[in-house]
Amino acid sequence: MRLGLILFAASLAIACDDGATPDAGADGGFDAALRDAEPPDAPAPMCAPGCEDDETCCADPTGGDAVCYALRNDPEHCGTCGTNCVAANRGDACQASQCSCGVNPLGCRGTVEDFCCPAREEGGQTYCANLATSALDCGDCDAACDIRTADRCDGGRCVCGSREPCEGTPESTCCVDEPDVGCVDTTTDRFHCGECENLCQGAERCEDGTCTRGASCGGACELGQVCCDGVCCSRRGCLSGACMDPPAPDGGAPDAGAPDGG
User: Fold this and answer.
1) pLDDT digits (tens, 9 = 90+) for 43-67
2) Dihedral, 222, 226, 232, 233 alpha carbons, nearest 10
3) Mean local confidence (pLDDT), 147-175
4) How far apart are CA 92 and CA 22, in angstroms?
5) Which one of 29, 145, 169, 199 is most buried, by most CB atoms within 10 A?
6) Is-contact 177 184, C-beta < 8 A?
7) Which residues face 239 on adjacent strands?
8) How confident is the model at residue 41 (pLDDT cuts 50, 70, 90)?
């Protein structure tokens, strides 16, 4: 009986040893296959007859001959081969292996929020701009928002307050109207008569963009004047419904003088 048990245990041990060997062999073959599948390292570019000490041999992405570049100051290969400062919107020059934009020696990031723009005027400098929020560069470089249509840039779009831009006409001008900002009709709005924040006083009404007392003048007066019972007049000269400004030198309408009546 004991002999039978010993023989049975020995057969189990042999079976276990035989089962472990194929697994190890399979794993080893799989690892070897992975190593064989890895692509070989690409050969380094070769420049003939060779580069200077301050140059680096860069491969031609189109398949042409490799070329030597000074990565410290080449704007098309700045710091590393193929780093083009202008194409990446990071700068217009390369200084000390770093793209630079105008007075910014570290350049821009090349994103919508940090974009290197050309100079606004001849002889000026390039500059980093936030095209998402800059009212001077809204959505694009040097694309300024018209103050008659918008008061700010939001997401690269000119807007008036929280609304769409105004038309930019006297009937639709973007004005700050506390506590809000919106489009107003400057031909009739007594708080923005003729222009934003030009407030009509007392019983004056806004008519044709002119603060008016009494009879209408039949049209807009000059900026800074009021319509004083049918006569364009300085505000200070309009007294008790009559314009007390001195007559104009040519004998025409009264001389309104300076906008403040001086």
Assistant:
1) 667 888 889 999 999 998 888 889 9
2) -100
3) 95
4) 63
5) 145
6) yes
7) 242
8) low
Read off the tokens for 123. 């002889």
Q: Amino acid letter at 215?
A: A
Asked whether residue 32 is assigned to any structural domain, the reply reads no
Comparing 27 with 228, the larger pLDDT belongs to 228
Residue 60 covered by a domain? yes
Which residue range(s) make up the domain with 102? 49-111
Mean pLDDT, residues 118-127: 94
Q: How far apart are CA 245 and CA 220, in angstroms?
A: 18
Query: How far, in Å, are 38, 44 from residue 41 at the CA level?
Result: 9, 9
Q: Which two tokens stand for residue 105?
A: 């020696």
Strand stretches in the chain, DSSP E: 56-58, 67-69, 93-95, 98-100, 115-117, 127-129, 152-154, 157-159, 173-177, 180-184, 205-207, 210-213, 225-228, 231-234, 238-239, 242-243
Residues 6+ apart with CB under 8 A from 121: none
Number of structural domains in the chain? 2
Q: Choose one of 78, 111, 144: the last residue of a domain.
A: 111
What tens digit of pLDDT does each residue of 99-114 get?
Answer: 999 999 999 999 999 9
Beta strand pairing call for 93-95 and 98-100: antiparallel
